[in-house]
Amino acid sequence: xxxxxxxxIGDELLIGQVVNTNASQMAQKLxxxxxxxxxxxxxxxxxxxxxxxxxxxxxxxxxxxxxxxxGPTKDDITKKILAEYFDSNLVINKEVEQHVESYFNRKQLxxxxxxxxxxxxxxxxxxxxxxxxxxxxxxxxxxxKLIVSMPGVPFEMRLMMGKVIEIMQNFFxxxxxxxxxxxxxxxxxxxxxxxxxxxxxxxxxxxxxxxxLPKSNTIRLRLTAKTDEDIDLEKILxxxxxxxxxxxxxxxxxxxxxxxxxxxxxxxxxxxxxxSVAESCTGGYIxxxxxxxxxxxxxxxxSVTAYAxxxxxxxxxxxxxxxxxYGAVSKExxxxxxxxxxxALQTDYAISTTGIAGPEGGSEEKPVGTVWISVCSHKKKxxxxxxxxxxxxxxxxxxxxQALLMLIKLIxxxxxx
Length: 417
What we know:
The chain is of the alpha/beta class. Helix content is 41%, strand content 25%.
């Protein structure tokens, strides 16, 4: 299997000013085409770091992919360093020059000598055209190994990766097959799930691996199959997936990758049912998760972010006496919120949350991390108390996921297959 190393260049990545999304997106793309990502690294805009990182990567990898440092300003040094590294002069590429000039003309901007410098490329490289930017990609060969440099701008890199994959496949005559299947579980701990399937895991062939990926009250099990052999890998993996589901049916949620809201949406669409949400401590995040999925307008009618008690009373119909007697963070208020939004928006199901996200606002009786979640239909009301003592962002994420899981469970109970 071809071993690939990724090097992302940029001081802004090292100081955390910009999140390095390139590494994950590149790795996913490479993996889907059967290339194994051996390592990833982030380095600064330093000639010495670029040279040292290339030396290390080329000792252990067949292919090195680099992003960043190809812009027109003085801190963009990658092109210059690569020219030196491969003992090559920088020359003007006429096709790139025409493209860059046309790019600025379309935008009705002046074409300066700084812009023209984008057309300078190492003489020994193969240019990879950049259809949406001015910095071209560059491909080098050295001692039977492939080195590719791409722009660091994420959408430019993503568009260029298709061509890079094609170059890699031709260069390495890649024939490795790789498949993934990810199963989503809830309402079970990681260790309990591991005990449940330990015999299954022990019987997996060498070319199939199993990974546990817990997050936000859920666990993802990812089965990965890799082989160079001429076998029906998809059929074999499907058989293993079916065996796994048979062993874990009670906790199996679906095949989504960390997207509980999508699973809920499929359930609602299949039943032709509608949903509304009343959120206090989650501040609209549940609605965000729901509407992030295409087609959610078919079942999601809307939400009320009822932070203030006055909003809970006036919009959701929460009784004043209930708030005075039990407080906003209580079972009674959660139940009235879910019933109120279901009534107000005339839906079949509803979710509500009320809690203390922190870092302030807790008490001895109701510490930060306390939350009441209610889900309901016209037949049944469910309310649960949970305690998630964590950061504010993580609290919101965990509460939201738990609320969606609770509603999925209620729907399945009311509509057994």
